[in-house]
Design the sequence.
């Protein structure tokens, strides 16, 4: 620890128990200064004649993991594994008193302690795979010893946290307390008379659970296909089965270090910080309080948005134009809750509580007290103008008015209200109740306070906000349109429908672009482009979609588009014939193309359009584009995003 670094660890002896308090905001990450402070404090505690030690953290959470900012730098002793072995070898019992989000190295430290107590509401886990890593400080060895192989594998492979209650049930913690964590942990420590090293417990073996290993391999190959971290976790569990724990820890550390240096972890760590940068509010902007909300329009998007809000605990007035439309919207929401409860995704109690926060209405006067109104009506500027005029008349002066439009000019909507500084866009992605991405669109008049309030609200409803400016299609749809436009150029130039989709799926996209267009409907894009003011003067401009649309091939909704959806499956021969004839009519000489060409051209189409959007100030930085593509269009997060990929190729790394 250098002279200038404040020691974040304070040791206080209370009734012969050493209380080690750590205060290293914002999340008590286990940086070098924290590790050194803990090692010193624990050594001193042994000399102070105490009977036990308790480790706890100040602030919002127990250690939220290793300090991600240290990865890729030379390790500084004590590395986390050394500290954890010092804790586990302690001759006095050590208790971990957890709250908040004990994650990764934070939970590994707790497992190296001899006992664990958690505050109700604590969410703990080993999310290393979300960073392209695996537990690197004993997690693969101590977690199975505490909770068994199946639970341990599930926690490590999914990266999902478990609640304090579940942790108690599976043996990960010894106690859960409602309040007063420090006092409860002290009292617990005073009952203890001996250490209980986790590492001395027997390691459960796959031989005792014959089908488990094959089930886990199947999961890694299917659900986590192509992800190096999950594959390493399972290999490590297998290889270390019969090793003494000291050797097993070395094996784990080696695999962890390989992943740290690997391309997937670099991309995922980039994504972690990019997500936090994308929705950062303007410096010192006032953040207003959103308590009550309203949604105008109960169609697919409006009802999905309403579900997002009531699930996040906000009361919502859902307004529709008449009783029938409102009933259909409310029915759609009731059907959603029936599905998620029947499917075990949400408890009946949570669904009932959420549904109880929703009130349907056909009267604008009922929105008078809403702090935020989100308009999700038909994509027509005149319809939206009428709605914003009514909202401006009936909503309180402080209310924010947002549109969920995908393309239209929100500046124009702000101008017809008396509050243009409080008008902005909240562009949700379908299905709105599930998709995390949210474009927060500031107009030329939107104030910093309105933007900051909307960004904070977005995070409160569990969304991932990206600030964008106003242009046709904002940032997401604008770059997606460029991608799709190049898809159609490739089809005209000779690439096959299935060839394009297969190339992009093999690259890692969740779905091929032609299949996506069939899903959303070929007519949607055709209608939007016909309404486009400055349509490019290029005869090839979405000529394929126009040809399919004119032939009645609309995609899934009509039973045929790029693909057939009836009894016959696969690419549509009619669509292919239309592509061939359109190409011929345009005088295009078709030629064979390989997957690399297809992927390269489509990535460049996104990158070029993104570059223009950044130059125009529509988005602030390249990583915002990557956040949009990884969370809105299924771009593989472990590849970082289209702009991240370009940075690799410019560095000569492919
Ligand atoms: N290291 C460094 N900084 C971190 C951090 C970490 N582990 N976690 C969060 N931050 C920063 C974050 O960048 C932001 O900074 C601020 O804290 C608030 O974060 C050895 C190898 C804990 C649930 O993966 O999931 O341990 O933007 O905005 O929404 O086996 O942060 O303000 O400058 O996210 O309240 C494993 C990652 C690491 C946990 C809190 N741990 N963090 O969410 O706040 S690898 C993780 C989170 C590891 C071991 C392995 C969340 C949170 P800034 P935030 P939040």
Sequence:
């Amino acid at each position: 620890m250098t002279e200038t670094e404040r020691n974040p660890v304070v040791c206080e002896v209370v009734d012969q128990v050493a209380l080690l308090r750590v205060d290293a905001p914002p999340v008590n990450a286990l940086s070098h200064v924290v590790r050194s402070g803990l090692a010193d404090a624990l050594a001193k505690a042994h000399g102070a004649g105490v009977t036990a030690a308790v480790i706890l953290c100040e602030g919002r959470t127990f250690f939220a993991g290793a300090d991600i900012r240290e990865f890729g730098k030379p390790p500084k002793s004590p590395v986390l594994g050394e500290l954890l072995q010092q804790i586990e070898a302690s001759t006095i019992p050590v208790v971990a008193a957890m709250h908040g989000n004990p994650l990764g190295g934070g939970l590994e430290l707790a497992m190296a302690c001899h006992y664990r107590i958690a505050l109700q509401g604590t969410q703990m886990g080993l999310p290393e795979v979300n960073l392209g890593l695996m537990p690197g400080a004993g997690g693969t060895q101590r977690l199975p010893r505490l909770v068994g192989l199946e639970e341990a594998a599930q926690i490590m492979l999914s990266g999902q946290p478990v609640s304090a209650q579940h942790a108690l049930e599976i043996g990960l913690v010894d106690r859960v307390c409602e309040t007063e964590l420090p006092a409860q942990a002290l009292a617990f420590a005073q009952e203890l008379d001996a250490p209980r090293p986790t590492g001395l417990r027997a390691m459960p073996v796959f031989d005792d659970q014959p089908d488990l290993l094959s089930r886990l391999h199947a999961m890694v190959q299917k659900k986590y296909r192509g992800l190096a971290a999950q594959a390493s976790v399972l290999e490590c569990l297998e290889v270390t089965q019969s090793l003494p724990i000291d050797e097993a820890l070395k094996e784990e550390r080696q695999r962890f270090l390989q992943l740290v240096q690997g391309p997937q972890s670099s991309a995922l760590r980039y994504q972690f910080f990019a997500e936090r940068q994308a929705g950062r509010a303007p410096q010192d902007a006032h953040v207003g309080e959103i308590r009550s909300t309203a949604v105008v329009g109960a169609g697919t998007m409006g009802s999905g948005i309403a579900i997002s809000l009531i699930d996040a605990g906000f009361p919502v007035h859902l307004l529709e134009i008449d009783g029938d439309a409102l009933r259909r919207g409310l029915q759609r929401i009731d059907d959603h809750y029936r599905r998620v409860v029947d499917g075990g995704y949400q408890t009946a109690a949570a669904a009932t509580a959420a549904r109880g926060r929703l009130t349907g209405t056909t009267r604008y006067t009922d929105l008078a007290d809403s702090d935020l109104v989100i308009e999700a009506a038909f994509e027509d500027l005149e319809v939206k103008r009428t709605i914003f005029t009514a909202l401006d008349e009936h909503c309180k002066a402080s209310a924010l008015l947002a549109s969920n439009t995908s393309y239209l000019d929100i500046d124009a909507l702000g101008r017809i209200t008396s509050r243009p500084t409080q008008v902005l866009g909240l562009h949700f992605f379908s299905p709105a109740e599930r998709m995390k991405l949210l474009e927060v669109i500031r107009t030329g008049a939107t104030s910093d306070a309105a933007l900051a309030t909307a960004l904070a609200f977005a995070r409160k409803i569990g969304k991932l906000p990206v600030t964008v400016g106003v242009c046709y299609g904002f940032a997401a749809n604008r770059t997606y349109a460029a991608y799709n436009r190049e898809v159609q150029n490739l089809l005209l130039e000779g690439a096959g429908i299935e060839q394009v989709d297969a190339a992009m799926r093999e690259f890692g996209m969740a779905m091929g672009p032609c299949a996506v267009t069939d899903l959303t409907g070929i007519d949607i894009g055709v209608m939007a482009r016909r309404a486009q003011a400055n349509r490019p003067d290029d005869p090839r401009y979405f000529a394929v979609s126009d040809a399919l649309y004119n032939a009645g091939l609309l995609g899934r909704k009509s039973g045929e588009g790029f693909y057939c959806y009836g009894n016959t499956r696969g690419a549509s021969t009619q669509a292919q014939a239309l592509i061939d004839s359109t190409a011929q009519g345009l005088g295009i000489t078709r030629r064979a193309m390989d997957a690399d060409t297809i992927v390269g051209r489509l990535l460049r189409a996104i990158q070029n359009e993104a570059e223009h959007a950044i130059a125009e100030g529509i988005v602030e930085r390249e990583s915002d584009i990557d956040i949009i593509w990884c969370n809105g269009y299924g771009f593989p997060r472990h590849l970082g995003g289209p702009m991240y990929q370009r940075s690799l190729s410019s560095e000569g790394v492919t």
In short: Residues 9-264 form a domain with the 2-enoyl-CoA Hydratase; Chain A, domain 1 fold (CATH 3.90.226.10).
